[in-house]
Protein backbone atom coordinates (compact mmCIF):
# COMPACT_ATOMS: atom_id res chain seq x y z
CA UNK A 1 0.00 0.00 0.00
CA UNK A 2 1.41 3.39 -1.03
CA UNK A 3 0.29 5.02 2.22
CA UNK A 4 3.24 3.42 4.06
CA UNK A 5 6.12 5.72 3.07
CA UNK A 6 9.56 4.08 3.12
CA UNK A 7 8.21 1.39 5.45
CA UNK A 8 8.44 -2.17 4.15
CA UNK A 9 5.83 -4.87 4.67
CA UNK A 10 8.07 -6.52 7.26
CA UNK A 11 8.56 -3.28 9.21
CA UNK A 12 4.85 -2.62 9.67
CA UNK A 13 4.71 -4.97 12.65
CA UNK A 14 7.48 -3.10 14.50
CA UNK A 15 6.92 -1.48 17.88
CA UNK A 16 6.90 2.32 17.99
CA UNK A 17 6.94 4.55 21.06
CA UNK A 18 5.73 7.99 22.09
CA UNK A 19 6.23 9.99 25.31
CA UNK A 20 3.44 12.33 26.39
CA UNK A 21 2.22 13.82 29.65
CA UNK A 22 -0.15 11.92 31.92
CA UNK A 23 -2.75 14.65 31.32
CA UNK A 24 -2.72 14.00 27.56
CA UNK A 25 -2.98 10.25 28.13
CA UNK A 26 -6.01 10.65 30.41
CA UNK A 27 -7.63 12.93 27.82
CA UNK A 28 -6.99 10.27 25.18
CA UNK A 29 -8.76 7.61 27.25
CA UNK A 30 -11.66 9.76 28.47
CA UNK A 31 -12.48 11.31 25.08
CA UNK A 32 -11.40 8.27 23.03
CA UNK A 33 -9.40 10.40 20.61
CA UNK A 34 -5.94 10.60 19.14
CA UNK A 35 -4.61 14.08 18.36
CA UNK A 36 -2.35 15.28 15.54
CA UNK A 37 -0.93 18.81 15.30
CA UNK A 38 0.08 21.16 12.51
CA UNK A 39 3.75 20.70 11.57
CA UNK A 40 4.39 24.41 12.15
CA UNK A 41 4.16 23.63 15.88
CA UNK A 42 7.14 21.26 15.72
CA UNK A 43 10.30 22.62 17.35
CA UNK A 44 12.79 22.32 14.49
CA UNK A 45 12.54 25.46 12.24
CA UNK A 46 13.38 23.32 9.22
CA UNK A 47 10.16 21.33 9.70
CA UNK A 48 7.48 21.72 7.07
CA UNK A 49 9.93 23.67 4.91
CA UNK A 50 8.60 22.40 1.60
CA UNK A 51 5.05 23.59 2.26
CA UNK A 52 6.34 26.97 3.44
CA UNK A 53 8.09 27.76 0.17
CA UNK A 54 6.29 30.65 -1.58
CA UNK A 55 4.75 29.84 -4.95
CA UNK A 56 3.50 32.21 -7.64
CA UNK A 57 -0.12 32.22 -8.76
CA UNK A 58 -1.32 32.92 -12.29
CA UNK A 59 -0.93 36.68 -11.64
CA UNK A 60 2.69 36.30 -10.61
CA UNK A 61 1.92 36.97 -6.95
CA UNK A 62 3.74 35.12 -4.17
CA UNK A 63 1.46 32.91 -2.09
CA UNK A 64 1.99 30.29 0.60
CA UNK A 65 0.69 26.90 -0.45
CA UNK A 66 -2.76 26.05 0.91
CA UNK A 67 -1.32 22.60 1.68
CA UNK A 68 0.46 23.97 4.75
CA UNK A 69 -2.94 24.61 6.34
CA UNK A 70 -4.32 21.12 5.77
CA UNK A 71 -1.42 19.05 7.10
CA UNK A 72 -1.33 17.36 10.52
CA UNK A 73 1.21 15.01 12.02
CA UNK A 74 2.14 13.00 15.08
CA UNK A 75 5.69 11.89 15.93
CA UNK A 76 6.65 8.45 17.23
CA UNK A 77 10.02 6.72 17.48
CA UNK A 78 11.55 3.31 16.91
CA UNK A 79 13.78 3.91 19.97
CA UNK A 80 12.46 1.96 22.94
CA UNK A 81 13.75 4.35 25.62
CA UNK A 82 16.30 7.06 26.22
CA UNK A 83 17.10 9.67 28.85
CA UNK A 84 16.48 12.41 26.29
CA UNK A 85 12.95 11.19 25.56
CA UNK A 86 11.87 11.67 29.16
CA UNK A 87 13.63 14.99 29.70
CA UNK A 88 12.48 16.61 26.44
CA UNK A 89 8.86 15.48 26.32
CA UNK A 90 8.13 15.35 30.06
CA UNK A 91 10.31 17.98 31.73
CA UNK A 92 8.00 18.08 34.77
CA UNK A 93 8.52 14.36 35.46
CA UNK A 94 4.87 13.62 34.61
CA UNK A 95 5.41 11.56 31.47
CA UNK A 96 4.14 8.26 30.19
CA UNK A 97 5.47 6.26 27.29
CA UNK A 98 2.95 4.41 25.15
CA UNK A 99 3.73 1.83 22.51
CA UNK A 100 1.89 0.28 19.62
CA UNK A 101 2.66 -1.23 16.20
CA UNK A 102 3.17 0.81 13.02
CA UNK A 103 0.33 -1.04 11.33
CA UNK A 104 -2.09 -0.54 14.22
CA UNK A 105 -1.42 3.19 14.39
CA UNK A 106 -1.99 3.69 10.67
CA UNK A 107 -5.13 1.57 10.72
CA UNK A 108 -6.58 3.60 13.61
CA UNK A 109 -6.39 6.79 11.51
CA UNK A 110 -7.50 5.13 8.26
CA UNK A 111 -10.53 3.45 9.83
CA UNK A 112 -11.70 6.71 11.44
CA UNK A 113 -12.30 8.35 8.05
CA UNK A 114 -15.70 8.24 6.38
CA UNK A 115 -14.23 9.03 2.95
CA UNK A 116 -10.99 9.77 1.07
CA UNK A 117 -8.90 7.75 3.54
CA UNK A 118 -6.47 6.57 0.85
CA UNK A 119 -5.50 10.12 -0.12
CA UNK A 120 -5.51 11.63 3.37
CA UNK A 121 -3.91 9.06 5.71
CA UNK A 122 -0.20 8.19 5.68
CA UNK A 123 2.53 6.88 7.92
CA UNK A 124 6.20 7.20 7.08
CA UNK A 125 9.79 6.95 8.20
CA UNK A 126 11.66 10.24 8.57
CA UNK A 127 14.75 10.60 6.38
CA UNK A 128 17.71 12.56 7.75
CA UNK A 129 19.93 14.69 5.52
CA UNK A 130 22.84 17.14 5.87
CA UNK A 131 21.91 20.79 5.39
CA UNK A 132 23.29 20.99 1.84
CA UNK A 133 21.08 18.09 0.79
CA UNK A 134 18.03 19.82 2.27
CA UNK A 135 18.97 22.98 0.34
CA UNK A 136 19.11 20.88 -2.83
CA UNK A 137 15.65 19.50 -2.14
CA UNK A 138 14.35 23.05 -1.74
CA UNK A 139 16.02 24.10 -5.00
CA UNK A 140 14.48 21.15 -6.82
CA UNK A 141 11.06 22.11 -5.50
CA UNK A 142 11.42 25.72 -6.61
CA UNK A 143 12.56 24.60 -10.06
CA UNK A 144 9.32 22.66 -10.49
CA UNK A 145 10.22 19.05 -9.81
CA UNK A 146 7.20 16.75 -9.50
CA UNK A 147 8.54 14.75 -6.55
CA UNK A 148 6.17 16.45 -4.09
CA UNK A 149 3.05 16.59 -6.25
CA UNK A 150 -0.09 14.70 -5.22
CA UNK A 151 -1.06 13.54 -1.75
CA UNK A 152 1.79 11.04 -1.45
CA UNK A 153 4.32 13.68 -2.45
CA UNK A 154 2.83 16.17 -0.02
CA UNK A 155 3.03 13.64 2.79
CA UNK A 156 6.65 12.88 1.90
CA UNK A 157 7.47 16.58 2.22
CA UNK A 158 6.86 16.16 5.97
CA UNK A 159 9.41 13.37 6.26
CA UNK A 160 12.68 15.31 6.00
CA UNK A 161 14.86 16.36 8.90
CA UNK A 162 18.43 17.48 9.50
CA UNK A 163 21.07 14.82 10.15
CA UNK A 164 21.63 16.18 13.67
CA UNK A 165 18.28 14.63 14.66
CA UNK A 166 18.84 11.16 13.21
CA UNK A 167 19.12 9.62 16.70
CA UNK A 168 15.34 10.20 17.03
CA UNK A 169 14.51 7.45 14.48
CA UNK A 170 11.10 9.00 13.90
CA UNK A 171 7.98 7.47 12.44
CA UNK A 172 5.28 10.01 11.59
CA UNK A 173 1.54 9.62 11.30
CA UNK A 174 0.22 12.15 8.76
CA UNK A 175 -3.26 13.38 7.92
CA UNK A 176 -3.99 15.67 4.95
CA UNK A 177 -7.48 17.17 5.14
CA UNK A 178 -8.94 16.28 1.71
CA UNK A 179 -11.41 19.18 1.82
CA UNK A 180 -9.00 21.84 3.12
CA UNK A 181 -11.62 22.70 5.73
CA UNK A 182 -9.98 21.86 9.06
CA UNK A 183 -9.23 25.25 10.60
CA UNK A 184 -7.46 24.32 13.82
CA UNK A 185 -3.99 23.66 15.18
CA UNK A 186 -5.16 20.14 16.10
CA UNK A 187 -6.87 17.29 14.31
CA UNK A 188 -8.68 14.83 16.58
CA UNK A 189 -9.93 11.49 15.36
CA UNK A 190 -11.92 8.85 17.22
CA UNK A 191 -10.07 5.75 18.36
CA UNK A 192 -10.15 3.19 21.13
CA UNK A 193 -6.97 3.65 23.20
CA UNK A 194 -7.53 0.35 25.03
CA UNK A 195 -6.97 -1.53 21.77
CA UNK A 196 -4.51 0.88 20.10
CA UNK A 197 -2.02 1.04 22.98
CA UNK A 198 -0.11 -2.19 23.66
CA UNK A 199 1.70 -1.00 26.78
CA UNK A 200 2.15 1.97 29.10
CA UNK A 201 5.40 2.85 30.89
CA UNK A 202 5.46 5.59 33.50
CA UNK A 203 8.18 8.18 33.96
CA UNK A 204 11.14 6.76 35.94
CA UNK A 205 11.30 10.05 37.89
CA UNK A 206 7.66 9.95 38.99
CA UNK A 207 7.04 9.19 42.67
CA UNK A 208 5.96 5.58 43.36
CA UNK A 209 2.82 6.91 45.05
CA UNK A 210 1.65 8.82 41.96
CA UNK A 211 2.53 5.88 39.73
CA UNK A 212 0.30 3.57 41.78
CA UNK A 213 -2.58 6.08 41.72
CA UNK A 214 -2.46 6.48 37.92
CA UNK A 215 -2.02 2.76 37.34
CA UNK A 216 -5.10 2.01 39.44
CA UNK A 217 -7.08 4.63 37.50
CA UNK A 218 -6.13 3.15 34.11
CA UNK A 219 -7.12 -0.34 35.24
CA UNK A 220 -10.44 0.95 36.58
CA UNK A 221 -11.37 2.60 33.26
CA UNK A 222 -10.80 -0.66 31.42
CA UNK A 223 -7.20 -0.75 30.22
CA UNK A 224 -5.94 -4.35 30.24
CA UNK A 225 -2.49 -3.90 28.73
CA UNK A 226 0.84 -3.96 30.52
CA UNK A 227 1.48 -1.04 32.91
CA UNK A 228 4.92 -0.56 34.47
CA UNK A 229 7.24 2.17 35.70
CA UNK A 230 10.52 2.62 33.89
CA UNK A 231 13.59 1.47 35.78
CA UNK A 232 15.94 3.64 33.71
CA UNK A 233 17.43 5.39 36.73
CA UNK A 234 17.17 2.53 39.17
CA UNK A 235 20.53 1.59 40.67
CA UNK A 236 21.68 -1.91 39.66
CA UNK A 237 22.10 -4.56 42.31
CA UNK A 238 25.56 -6.13 42.05
CA UNK A 239 25.14 -8.41 45.08
Describe the structure.
It is globular, with a radius of gyration of 19 Å. Helix content is 30%, strand content 26%. The strands form five sheets. The protein has a four-stranded mixed sheet, sandwiched between helices. Strands 2-7-13-14 form a four-stranded mixed sheet. Strands 3-12 form a two-stranded antiparallel ribbon. It has a domain at 4-17 and 35-90 and 102-192. With 239 residues, it is an alpha/beta fold.
How many whole angstroms does the radius of gyration measure?
A: 19 Å
Q: What's the order of the H and E elements?
A: EEHEHEEEHEHHEEHHEEEHEHE
Low-pLDDT segments, ≥5 res: none
Mind describing the biggest β-sheet?
4 strands, mixed
How are the strands of the biggest sheet laid out side by side?
A: 1-8-11-6
Helix-strand category: alpha/beta
- Average per-residue pLDDT, rounded, comes to 86
What is the global morphology?
globular
Question: Can you count the beta strands?
Answer: 14
Helical segment count: 9
* Strand proportion: 25-35%
Q: How far apart are the termini?
A: 52 Å
Residue share in helices? 25-40%
